[in-house]
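Morning, I've got a small favour to ask if you have a moment. I've dropped the whole record in just underneath, so have a look.
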Amino acid sequence: MRSAECALASRDGYEGLHDECRQTKDIPLPHGAGLILVRRCDCPCHARIAGVA
């Protein structure tokens, strides 16, 4: 699932919002035995920003 910033950044004129995305890693539920509270953003832009792609 994409973050709100990356979803909006896919529209014309908002491309710069990819840099504002803070959902770059999974956040586990405290004491949740491995359950994920918030999943990381799966937008392909994160690989480009990190220089991986």
Observations:
- The first strand starts at residue 27 and ends at 28.
- The chain has one domain: 4-50.
- The chain is about 25% helix and 10% strand.
- The helical segments are 4-9, 45-50.
